[in-house]
Amino acid sequence: MNKKVVIFVFFIIVTLCLHAQSSNKNPCLPVEFKAGFRIQKAQKLYWENGISFDFASSKVAGSHLHLGLSYVTSRLGSAIGSNAIRQDNYLFSAGYHFRPQKQFQPFIRINMGYFHADYGEDIFDVLPNQSFLLSLDAGLSYAFSFHLTLSVSAGYNLRSGNGTTIPGTLFPVFYQMSVYYTLL
User: Fold this and answer.
1) How much of the chain is helix, strand and coil, in % rounded to 5?
2) 13: Cβ contacts below 8 Å, ≥ 6 apart
3) What pTM, to 2 d.p., does this model score?
4) Which residue of 60, 123, 143, 182 lies most exposed, with the fewest beta carbons within 10 A?
């Protein structure tokens, strides 16, 4: 990823966090916007880390429906300082949170997106290196009494790698943990 893009995203997140700290929060505000980081582990394969955003509104399904965007990559995980394959996941998610007004919130989620693997050598150009992503996961979210939310889940990629038509590093079972800071 381009260094300027990383710095820009970091600047935006810090600016939003400072705004959230200084603003008078309106408890009747009908939206909730969270930003944070995600740690993801494919079973028996790579650690992937990245950023994640979560949006919910009390005007839409009473805050039960959550929409999210995430970018997770092995570039910030197993591929740091190693010869692990650099792979990127760009995800859009839609989830249903049971008990949205409580601190403990069980949830289910569907994720769709794009997967790309960078094998690093021309010899591997014959292997598939990209795929459409479709996965389901379920987990538990805990909203602290301050601006942090911790979310853990286990999921299953419905399109997993076979190495001939889908990248072989796209394993079916994954686990993830996200830590969000509530901006709005």
Assistant:
1) 15, 50, 35
2) 35, 51
3) 0.80
4) 123
